[in-house]
Amino acid sequence: MSKQLQKIYFDPYLFFSLFLLSTLGLFFLFSASNADFSIVLKQCFYVFVGFIIMTLVSQPDPDVFRRTSGSFLIFSLLLLGITYLFGPEINGAQRWIRFGPFSFQSSELLKLAVPIFLANFLFNKKLPIQRKEIFISLLIIFSCFFVVFTQPDLGTAIIIACSGLFVLFLSGLSWGFIGGSFVLLILSSPFIWNILLQPFQRQRIATFFNQDIDPFGASWNIIQSKVAIGSGGFFGKGFREGSQTQLNFLPETETDFIFSVIGEEFGFIGVLLLLSIYLFILLRCFYLALNARDRFCRLVIGGLTLTFAANLIINLCMVVGLLPVVGMPLPFISKGGSSLISLFFAFGIIISMSTHKKFLPQ
Amino acid sequence: MIFEERQIEKNNFSSRAILLFGIVVFSLIAVLVQVFSLQISGYNDYQLAALKNKNYEVPVQALRGEIFDRDGEVLIKNKPTFDLITRPNLISDIDSFLDEIQPVIFLSESDRNQYKKLEQEKAFVNKELVLKKDLSDEEIARFNVRSFNFQNAFIAKRYRRISEYPNIFSHVLGYTSRSDDEFKSMPEIPRSHWRDAELVYAHGLIKGRTGLEEIYEDHLNGTHGKRVYEINARGKLVQSLSLIEPLKGSDLYTNLDIEAQKSAAKFLGNRRGAVVAIDLDSGGINVLYSSPTYSINQLSNGMNEDDFQTLINDSDKPFFNRALQGRYPPASTIKPAIGMYGLLKNIVNWDFEMKDPGFFELPETGRVFRGWRKGGHGKVNMHKAFLVSSNTYFFSLAYQADIKELSNHLFSLGFGQKVCKDCYDEDQALVPTPEWKFSVMNAGWVKGDTVNLGIGQGYLLATPMQLAYYASLIAKKGVLSEPSIVKFEDAKKSLKIWQDDKFDDSDWNKMHQALLGVIESDFGTARSIRDLKQFQVAGKSGTAELVGLDSKEAYQELRTSEFLRDHSIIIAFGPMPNPRYAVSVVIENGESGGAVAGPVAIEVLKSLINE
After folding, report:
1. Do B34 and A290 touch (CB under 8 A)?
2. Full residue range of the structural domain in which residue B564 is found
3. Which CATH number covers residue B410?
4. Residue at which a domain ends, from B253, B287, B306
C-alpha cells in the first residue's frame, strides 16, 4: 500500500521537453509583450499551475477517465451553455466564463471531452465500425463543433472537430466512408462559404489567395508576419531587437503571431530549435500511443496527440502564410491560461494512460 | 475481443497512426521550407520591407547663403532669435491657449490677431507657427519654468533673413517668402513626411521671390539634410537613428557698394526715380536703386496685411523696380549715340557746322520741331551741339538717317535689349522700328518719327540700367565686361565689345572731351553741378518730355499737374580722364535734367570714388 502511494506516474521525456518549451515560451512572451512583466508573471503562474495539474491528472488510472467520460462531456457542454447565457461579450464573441479574478474559455474543455468520450464509445466496437456508431460519433462531433462555431470561435471549433475525427479515424473508420465524406465536403463547399462563414472569415480566405486586395486592412497581419519572419534571417535580430515586434507592426504578438516574433528575433536557427522540441514531443507521444496498454488508451493518446499537432500546425501554417488567418494560439508559447491549462490537462491524461500498467487482463 | 482481433485492431491503429503522423511530419517540413524561403531566400526583400516599415526620413532644412557687398560687408544675413513656437494643429482652442500663455509671455493685441490670422491660413507643410519672436532672457526663463503647462509650445532658435539696410537694397536683393515645394530636391522623402521636417527658419520653408534671392535661388539654397527616425506602427517617432547634416547654401559676393547706394537713396529722397552705377573695370553693378522703396525685412518676415495693402495701393508704386523696369524716353542723353551714328555714316564730321535757328522744319510736310532754347544756339558743330544740347543739330542729323540702320546702331549700344547678366526681371524697353510701329500702331513709319528719335523723344524708351550700360560703353570706349550684380571670377572674360573701324580712338577722345564739356565748361547744359566735386566728370543730361508741346507757355500750364512734368535724366562717368565709374539717374517728373538728376549722379560718383 505504502509502495503504491509513493509511486508517482511520471514521464521524464515529456516532462522535461514541456518544461523547456514553456520556459522558452516565457522568454518569447517577455519580448512579444514589449517587456511587460505582469503578463509574463501571470503566464508563469499558469505554467506552474499547469505542471501541477498535469502531475495530478497523470496519477489516476485511465479507467477513471473512461468511466467519467460521459459526465465530463455533459459538464463541458453545461459550461458552454452557461457561457452562452451569462458570458461577457468581448470583441463580438462570447467565449469566456468568469471565476472571480480568472476567466476561462469553456470551449477548451471540449477539446478533451470529445476525444475521450468518443474513445470510450468506440474502443470496444468491432472492426470495421458500423454505420450507426459512425452516425452517433459524427452527430456528437458536429454538434460540439457547431456550438463553439456559433460563439463564434472558428479556430477552437476546428480543433474540437479534429479531435473527434482523429479518434474516429484511428478507431477504424472505413476508407470508403472517408472518400465519400470528402466528395460531400467539396460538393457542399459553396454552402459552407455562403451560409456558414462570417463575412470577416470569407475576407480572410479571399486575402489569403490575393494579399494585394487590401494590404493595409485584411492582409496587414499576414504581410507583417511574413516581413517579421523573413527579416529575421538566419540568426535573427536578437532578443528584444525585432523591429516588427517591438514597434508593433506585427499584430497579436502575444497570442496568434508569437511564432513570427520568434522567427524575427531568433531567425532560422531559433525556428529550427523550436520545431525540434515540438517534433520530439510529438515523437514521444506517438511512441506512447503505439505502445499503449489497450485500445482505449491508444485512441485517447493518439487523439489528443493529433489534436495537439493539428493545433500546432494550423498556427504555424497560418503565421507563415500557408493557410488563411484563423484564431489559433501556438501551444505552450502563446499567452492565455485556458489553452495552457487544457494542454497540460491533455498531457496529464497522456502520461496517465501511458504509465499505468494493466493489472487485470480484460 | 479475442487476441487475434486485438492484434488486427492494433495493426490497423498503428498503420493509421503512422499515416497521420506522416502527415504531421510532412506539414512541419512544409512549414520549415516556407520559413526557409522567407528567412533565407527572401531575406533581402523582407529585411528591406521591415526597414521601410520602421524608418521614417524627414528633411532637415539648410540655411540659405548670405549676401555681401563688394567689401565683404553683409547685406542679408541669417539672424537667429529665440522664438516661442507653437504647434497649432495640436491646439484645440486657440483663444484659451493664448489666454493661458499671456501671463508668461506678453502678447499685444496685434500679436494675438496676427497669430490667429496666420493660424487660419497655415499651409500643411508648416506644422510650426511662431507666436512671438525674439524673446527676452526673462521671458525665456519664465517660460522654461512653466513649460510643462504648455505641451504644444516650445522655445527654440530660429533664423530670419535680415538685412541691415532693409530699405535701400530691397529691389536689388529681393525678398523671400514661404514656399511649399522646397524639399522637392529630395524625391526619396515622401511629401507626407515634410510636415515633420526640422526647420531652421521661423517662416518654415522659404524661397527667393525677387531680386538676387530669386535669381540665385539655387546658389543660395543649401543642401537639405536628412534625419532618419524610428517609428512605431502608429506612426509615432520613437527615436532618431541617424542624421545627415544639412549644408548651408553658398554665400553671394556682390559688386554692390553700401555707401554709394546710401548716397543714391539719400539724394533721391522721396522722389520717384532710379540710380544705376557700374564699375567700369569689372562691369560690376555698384548701385541699383529704385525709389520709393519698401522694407524687405518686413516683407520677408511677415508684414501685416494693412502695411501690405498700403504698399500695394501706393500710387508711387514702391514695388515697381524703376531701375530695371522703368521705361523712359532717354531724351538728350541719346545725343552721343546719334552723333556716333552721324560720324559712322559720314553724315557729319567733327568739323561740320550748321546754323541752329532754334527749330527744325521737316522739308516734306513743313512740320516744325523746336529746340529747347528760343532763337537757337547760332552756329553749331558736333562738339558745341553736345555742350549746348542743340536739338536742331540732331533733328537735322536724324533726318538724314536710315531708320533701320539707326535702330541697329541703338541696339548695338544696348538699347532695346537686356544688358545685365543677373538682374531680376529686367525689361528690354524699346527701340522702335518700322515693323514695330506697323504691328503695334498699324501705321507706317514717317520721317518725323526718325527726326524725333534724334533727340531721344518719340517711341524710343530705355531703362536706367540700359542708360548706365550705354554710359559705360562710351566711357570705356566700347570695351566693357557684361554688367553683373554678383562678382564673377571671370568677369574680365565676358567682354561686350562695341567696335567699328570708322570710329577710332580720336573719335572717342573727342566724344569724351565734348561730354566733359557738358559739365565742366562754361557753356555746358549741366555746368550747375560742376562745383559739387573735386574731380572731373563727363556726362549728358536730358529732359524727357512726356507730352509733345509747341511752346513754353503751354508747358507752364501743363506742369501744374506733377505727373505730366518732364523726367529728369543724366548719364555721367568719371573721374576724367580715366573714368572708373559710370552712372545713370532718372527722376520722374523732376524737370530740367542737369540741375535735378545731376547732383544725385555726382553724389553717387563721389561715394564710389572717395573710397
Report:
1. no
2. 258-609
3. 3.40.710.10
4. B253
For residue B527, the 8-state DSSP code is G
- Are B228 and B278 in the same domain? no
Same structural domain for residues B273 and B392? yes
B248-302 per-position pLDDT tens digit: 999 999 999 999 999 999 999 999 999 999 999 989 999 999 989 999 998 888 7
Please report which confidence band the pLDDT of residue A206 belongs to, taking 50, 70 and 90 as the band edges: confident
For residues B221 and B337, membership in a common domain is answered with no
Say what the pLDDT of residue B511 is. Answer: 95
Q: Report the pLDDT averaged over residues B26-31.
A: 96
User: Long-range contacts of range B406-410, CB-CB < 8 Å, 24 or more positions apart?
Assistant: B406/B338, B406/B341, B406/B450, B406/B453, B407/B431, B407/B432, B407/B433, B409/B337, B409/B340, B409/B341, B409/B344, B410/B334, B410/B337, B410/B460
Q: Which helix (H) or strand (E) holds B157?
A: strand B153-163
Whether B581 is in a domain gets the answer: yes
Chain A contact present for B357, CB below 8 A: no
Amino acid identity, residue A36? D
For residues B172 and B272, membership in a common domain is answered with no
Cα–Cα distance between B299 and B611 in angstroms, integer? Answer: 32
The verdict on B362 and B237 lying in the same domain is no
List pLDDT tens digits, range B460-476. 999 999 999 999 999 99
Average pLDDT of span A306-310: 95
- Tell me, what's the pLDDT at A362? 45
Q: Is residue B14 part of a domain?
A: no
Q: Quick one: pLDDT at residue B125?
A: 46
* Same domain as B170, residue B65: yes
Cβ within 8 Å, pair B35-A249: no
Domain CATH code at residue B69 = 3.90.1310.10
A224/B53 Cβ within 8 A: yes
B interface test, pick of A166, A234, A249, A280 with most B CB neighbours within 10 Å: A249
- Rounded distance, CA A150 to CA A195, Å? 12
> What's the whole-number mean pLDDT along residues B537-549?
83
> In the listed set B253, B286, B301, which residue is the last one of a domain according to the structure?
B253
Tell me how far apart the alpha carbons of residues B582 and B466 are, in angstroms, rounded to a whole number: 12
Answer yes or no: do B299 and B223 share one domain.
Answer: no
- Which among A220, A243, A261 is the top mutation candidate for probing chain B, defined by the most B β-carbons within 10 Å of its own β-carbon? A243
Whether B167 and B302 share a structural domain: no
Question: Is B332 assigned a catalytic role?
Answer: yes
**pTM of the model as a whole:** 0.75
Is B40 in contact with A248 (Cβ distance < 8 A)?
A: no
